[in-house]
Design a protein that fits this description.
The chain is an alpha/beta fold. The protein folds into two domains: 157 residues, Orthogonal Bundle (serine acetyltransferase, domain 1); 98 residues, UDP N-Acetylglucosamine Acyltransferase, domain 1, CATH 2.160.10. The chain is 43% helix and 10% strand. It is built from eight helices and 14 strands. A five-stranded parallel β-sheet has the order 1-4-7-10-13. It has a five-stranded parallel β-sheet with strand order 3-6-9-12-14. The longest helix is centred in the first third of the chain and has 23 residues. The radius of gyration is 24 Å and the shape is globular. The mean pLDDT is 92.
Amino acid sequence: MDIGERQNLKNEIEGIVELILDDYTKGRDVDNLDIFNQPDRDAVIDIVKKLLRILYPGYYRDKIYRSYNDTNRIAIIIEDVIYNLQKQVAIAFRHSDEYKSATDETLTCGARCITLEFLKKIPHVRELIDTDLQASYDGDPAAYSKEEIILSYPGLLATTINRMAHELYLLKVPLIPRIMTEYAHSVTGIDIHPGATIGKYFMIDHGTGIVVGETSIIGEHVKIYQGVTIGALSTKGGQSLRGAKRHPTIEDNVTIYAGASILGGETVIGTGSVVGSNAFLTASIAPGTRVSIKNQEHEFNQRGCNF
């Protein structure tokens, strides 16, 4: 490339830079340049990974914290989570109407209180995930040990992260709970909104493609398979529907097989029901109901072999 070509390339690059920078001046939401006024997604994901080490202290290894004393090792991780989560919560509070005009001191104080309250919930979360682990083991003959489930099953991972995110959701922390569950979604293919209420002994089998909406209520001893949607009947009302009960209630001891869709805030799946594969429900069913799709007609066209 000669001098003239290099100068032309430089001029073109400078023109492109100016074009893009000028595009940031239009006042749209996507034009925000203040990266320090948003929670750090990578930092939140790092916190999630450290929380997993706290929840399952003997299963997730850490290359950073090394100690011959397990108690000291876990204590360091807990303190690290408190410090970093507090920072992210303080930033996230800027997106809350309650804290929009608050001072930095007020934000820090509020974030500290919320973070400590959340960490106090860890024993409760661990109690719930222990029941999820038991349900996964009891319900899957392909599981040879609970260790296998903890270390490899996407369903338990998605449920575990959701249970942590749900506690932050209940504490009215903006943004961070959704970052956590969308991280779980990205690595497991399972999309559970942090607002969903889920009872004990929850089991996800296989899991890929599962969707559980924000206002869903799921009872105890519920088992769902891949491709299940527990969703809204319609979202065409947009933001006007915020806060309304848009998603179904699944009562205790319900099994929902692959590909089933259950929609609507008034839809209740009664205790002990079984919803078969590919069923589509927009109305409630009574306890003990079995829903199935009639066998489709198959056509077989056998061709002869030509040699």
